[in-house]
Amino acid sequence: MAKVSSQELGNKPIGKLLIQQAVPASIGILVMSLNILIDTIFVGNWIGPTAIAAINVVLPVSFFIAALGMSIGVGGSSIISRALGANDNFKALKTFGNQITLTILFTVVFVVFGLIYINELIPAFGGKGDIFEPAKTYYRIVLYGVPVLALCMMGNTVIRAEGKPKFAMYAMMFPSVGNLILDILFIKVFDFRMAGAAWATTGSYVLCFLFILWFFNSKHSELKINLSHFGLDLPIVKEIGSLGFVTLSRQAIVSVTYLLMNNILFELGGETSVTAYAIVGRMLMFALFPVYGITQGFLPIAGFNYGAKQYERVRKTINTAIKYAALLASIVFAFLMIFPEAITSVFTQDVDVLRETPPAMRWVFAATPIVAVQLIGAAYFQAVGKAIPALLLTLTRQGFFFIPLILILPKFYGELGVWISFPIADVLATIVTAYFLHCEVKLNLKPKATE
Question: What is the domain range of residue 330?
Fold first, then answer.
């Protein structure tokens, strides 16, 4: 039954298949995003606005280490999708085993490094003044669970590569619900404050890991690995690395962006501006969940059909994914332009934060309707195993455009220069991505097969 499921990626109608893949992915991302969102609301109302800023300081460090797992997962899942499409089950199994080995090795090393340099990393990411102590408390506890989170993120992408989006959705839902329950228990009931928020987050990682471990040992998974699959295979490791480096680079750039944004905003407006950015950042994670869901659903379909040399289906997948994602992004755009004040008031009643956040939110999301082209375009090259263009397009928005903009524009426009950098970077990155995607489709996806 499971075997039939993966093969459906190559023969079901594209629209129906994309919805089938994207809806569970969207729900999973929604629940995970709601978890982060509600966690921030709890922290803001039960501990204070400084605690929101403290968590925002810690996120780029812990997310970067967890992104090692995601990058290994995405890179290996591209191989697995194509291997399943080409009926090469041995390569799929060997790839999965190598993913587990690599994830454990890399994340443990980085966690040790992160704990040793805790006092240097937190201020570097903007944890200064009143933010430092709560950030340090949160950071240390959350970092203990990050290797488990990395294994979860890796495993989740593999579940999706097998064509099992519902189980990938469940893997996100269980820990998210658990985290909210633990938040109430540790923060509200036991009054553990920042330590409580951190232990709730770490506990949720363990819940996710237990579910994913169950899945791969159940009848639902095709990937039944043994000890021989864990031994590193150099060609597979290289391919995982070249493709996974795209995701890792994206997260590294995100971490650098957080570092710069927190420091620049702290200098321009203090804790209030850092808190405003933290709230806007949560909305960036939450509001675009349906667009990210389409992107996640797109990856295994594109990868499988490219591996099966069904290029017409790949073309249709690209076009359908962009249409669906653009429509959903436009709806999100309208909502955020109309209700930024109401959204901000949910997080905090601090007068300064309530004044500063809504205009920032409008600027940050100003180019939202066009991000679909940017996301799907970069995802396509990753799905089909073209690491270099995938890497360059992934780095385009934040690396080539956004970071230079936030270093230059605030010198002329102050804090406004930070916020207007977001839509300018989105527009420029979308133009570049659209050009390269158009060239790729025209040259390398000529119709060679029909459904």
Answer: 2-444
Q: Is residue 397 assigned to a domain?
A: yes
Number of domains observed in the structure of the chain: 1
**Of 138, 134, 132, whose CA–CA distance to 119 is shortest?**
132
Residue 450 lies in a domain: no
Token pair for residue 200? 């709730």
Cβ neighbours of residue 74 under 8 Å, at least 6 residues apart? 157, 243, 244, 246, 247, 299, 382
Task: Report the alpha-carbon distance of residue 175 to residue 346 in Å, rounded.
Answer: 23
- 34-93 pLDDT, tens digit each: 767 777 788 888 888 888 888 877 777 777 777 788 788 888 887 887 887 778 888 888
Q: Is pLDDT at 33 greater than 90 in this prediction?
A: no
Q: 262, 403, 297, 385: which is closest to 12 by C-alpha?
A: 297
Q: Is 340 within the bounds of a domain? A: yes
Would residue 180 count as lying in a domain?
A: yes
Q: Are 344 and 361 a contacting pair, CB within 8 Å?
A: yes
With beta carbons less than 8 A apart as the criterion, state whether 18 and 297 touch. yes
